[in-house]
TrEMBL record:
This protein's record includes keyword RNA-binding: yes
Originating species: Synchytrium microbalum
Protein name: HTH La-type RNA-binding domain-containing protein
InterPro entries: La_dom_prot, La_HTH, RBD_domain_sf, WH-like_DNA-bd_sf, WH_DNA-bd_sf
Region (Disordered) residue spans: 351-438
Ranges of residues in domain HTH La-type RNA-binding: 21-117
């Protein structure tokens, strides 16, 4: 039988697998996409800054925007694809968005990196300024006073802790605030940008009162024998009120609380010192009093709630401020001494009150030795009365009283332990008696016989 060499008995194979792009084309596209990502506006700025600050990559031509290919080869993403510098230069030359240097070691963007331009002057008045990096204790009037230097401020609102939204009455104030070279608030830099009012309305519901987590360290200026922080005292004129009719201390406390309530929205109040001459000295936590009178005046002033009386305010400076701190320090020192004396008296009362209470409970007549029921009881010694000429030895007596109380406590614990020991011995003896078998009468007779 003749076999046809063409017909080998197998059907022709049908290959359904699509090879797609060749490995060279796939590598080309991956390297090119990575080069475009590295030369984008967001990445090229950081790469150029790194090149100019490095002694390894710095070259005067880098000022024109060239990035060394050797720097791109140091990244892991590029190392996974290729480590051939000439291959990267060839792939970059095929792109219209990239330009390769004549030596083939550097690449750059064809289009220059654009810098963010200032917003046009014709912005809508509904746009807001957002300022970042405020301290947690910052209040709205302070923010309004700062941005009033650029234009008329209509509204101030805290979007979230440390971020405030400021709205101006016209576009000129908004543009002036954005185009300012730098912003410094309380000595710290602020980051200012603008957003649409719809974005602010979306974030307005997420606002909350920030907590005072970060302490601000302000420079301290010292004056007089007592060190103190200047620019913290505000004088409020309350001479228009009827202070002569107030004789109760509780009413004065209420008046101080009222003054605190009136000024608390502007800044954190530490304390209020009321004088009957018609002066109220308000101490704030932070040294920001220089700006408060202007803020209070722009907000309409502060009025006493009962009779709508306008209360004038002024900043306390110079000798008046020094005298205030001297008087305050003296008052605080007296208060500390009074508390210390009270503590000593309390200790003395606790140490000596036990014996006096025990003597008072039994109601013993020390002279007769007879109680209320007429029964003869053991005579007790009462507290010794000092004579007028006898020198004072209160400190020694207190020490003796404390020592005697300690010794009495030791004796009490000793008696208690002895009682426990005696109780244990008694229990052992009882157990021994119980465990001993009782002799039988027949056994006793047998022993006798």
């Amino acid at each position: 039988m003749d076999i046809d060499p063409v017909d080998d008995g197998f059907l022709p194979a049908v290959n359904t697998f699509s090879s797609g792009a060749s490995p060279a084309e796939s590598l080309h596209s991956k390297v090119l996409s990575l080069l475009l990502a590295y030369t984008s506006e967001s990445e090229a700025k950081s790469l150029l800054q790194q090149v100019r600050s490095s002694q390894t990559y710095y070259h005067p031509e880098h000022i024109d925007g060239y990035i060394p290919i050797s720097l791109l080869l140091s990244f892991k993403k590029m190392q996974k694809l290729t480590q051939d510098l000439h291959l990267i230069a060839q792939i970059a030359a095929t792109s219209r968005a990239l330009q390769v240097h004549a030596d083939g070691t550097k690449i750059r963007r064809v289009t220059s990196i654009t810098t963010p331009a200032a917003p046009p002057a014709g912005l809508s008045s509904s746009a807001y300024i957002t300022a970042y990096k405020f301290e947690s204790d910052t209040v709205k009037p302070e923010v309004a006073l700062y941005f009033a230097n650029f234009g008329v401020v209509v509204d101030v609102d805290f979007i979230k802790p440390g971020v405030a939204g400021i709205k101006f009455s016209d576009d000129a104030g908004l543009v002036n605030a954005i185009t300012a070279p730098h912003h410094r608030f309380r000595g710290d830099a602020l980051h200012v940008e603008w957003i649409a009012s719809s974005h602010l309305d979306m974030l307005e519901g997420k606002g909350r009162i920030p907590k005072n987590k970060k302490k601000v360290n302000y420079p301290r200026r010292l004056a007089g024998p007592y060190p103190y922080t200047c620019n913290r005292i505000l004088h409020v004129d309350v001479s228009g009120l009827c202070w002569d009719a107030i004789d109760d201390a509780s009413e004065l406390d209420k008046a101080a609380a009222t003054v605190t309530t009136l000024l608390e929205p502007y800044a954190h109040v530490v304390g209020v010192s009321l004088e009957r001459a018609g002066s109220a000295y308000v101490r704030f936590k932070q040294p920001i009093v220089d700006d408060l009178p202007v803020i209070i005046e722009r907000s309409g002033g502060i009025y006493w709630p009962d009779n709508d009386l306008l209360l004038p305010v002024r900043v306390v400076k110079g000798d008046e401020e020094r005298v205030y701190w001297h008087v305050t320090s003296a008052r605080e020192a007296k208060g500390m001494i009074a508390r210390r004396r009270w503590t000593v008296n309390a200790v003395e009362a606790v140490s000596t009150g036990t014996k006096r209470k025990a003597a008072g409970d039994n109601a013993v007549d020390n002279d007769s030795g007879v109680d209320e029921n007429g029964k003869q009881v053991k005579r007790r010694r009462g507290p010794r009365v000092k004579s007028e000429n006898e020198p004072s030895t209160s400190g020694v007596e207190d020490v003796l009283v404390v020592q005697s109380s300690v010794q009495g406590a030791k004796q009490h614990r000793k008696k208690k332990m002895n009682g426990k020991k005696q109780g244990k011995r008694g229990k052992k003896a009882a157990a021994a008696v119980i465990s001993t078998p009782k002799p039988d009468l027949a056994d006793m007779l047998n022993q006798l016989l």
